[in-house]
Amino acid sequence: MAFDLCTVKTAEHPFYIESIGVSICSIEELCFFLKENLYLIDGSVVNSRLCDWVRDELGLKTLSRKMSEAMERPDKDVSYFIMPVFAEIGYLSGREQHALREELTRVQVGPEDERSKIRADYLVQSGRYTAAISAYRKILNRNSSPSSLGAQFYALVWNNLGCAYALQFRYSNAADCFLSAWKLVRSREMMRRYVSTLPLFLDEKEYRVKLESLGADPVLIEKIQEYNLKIAADTRDRLKARPQGSLTDEEVLRQMKEEYRRGAFG
């Protein structure tokens, strides 16, 4: 990076990227965000609000004008909006600029659902589960049946939506998502996740009834149950080895459930 950090102005009022909940305070941070998150660049980044922020908060009037002019291009090529940002402080080498422009071209021509999924995955990784759930739902609502991306892609969206629900302890919703994923691709892994989630919110009788209604391969179900029992047993043994009085029985039960959940979805 060919710039002096001491000369980089910090904004008094950060630029907030609403879609992912990130605040930007300087041109350096903006460059870093753009370079590392090409798939997250959308209307919450490419807009007149960012142009105004660059002008008013960072005092970069010429850059602001270039960005505004890029937004007027009929081809809507985002590279003309973000590349001047990197050039402003020499953030990228010539080779890096070429590679990033090529990658950005691939991003722009990629399917909208694919970009939206990457954005939703990022939200999960950053702990913004409610926003991620909304993002996954938008993808699925746009496509009531698999498109050119194929059933495997949308099964993965259902799976990731289920994981986001599980991270909020909304196990019934999570199970419904894993079941929807399984119906699309009929994979062992999706069935494992579905069956593994059921004990987290059903009692023994309800669990048995649900398994009977599945009509799934009984051998597969038995293997899944054996796997889950092993997870539970391993967790129980680890907790038994804890120092005397270190956890209450209620805390032990809660921790067992949490470790089972991690193992079941791992």
What can you tell me about this protein's structure?
Helix 1 packs across helix 4, helix 2 runs antiparallel to helix 3 and helix 3 runs antiparallel to helix 4. The chain contains 13 helices and two strands. The longest helix is centred in the C-terminal third of the chain and has 23 residues. It is elongated. It starts with 9 loop residues before the first strand and ends with a helix. The chain has two domains: 105 residues, no CATH class; 154 residues, Serine Threonine Protein Phosphatase 5, Tetratricopeptide repeat (Alpha Horseshoe). A two-stranded antiparallel ribbon has the order 1-2. It is mainly alpha-helical and 266 residues long.
End-to-end Cα distance? 38 Å
Q: Can you tell me the CATH architecture of the largest domain?
A: Alpha Horseshoe
Text of the CATH class of the largest domain: Mainly Alpha
Helix segment tally:
13
The whole-angstrom Rg is 24 Å
Order of helices and strands: EEHHHHHHHHHHHHH
Which shape, going by the Cα principal axes?
Answer: elongated
Number of E strands:
2
> Biggest sheet, open or closed, and with what strands and sense?
2 strands, antiparallel
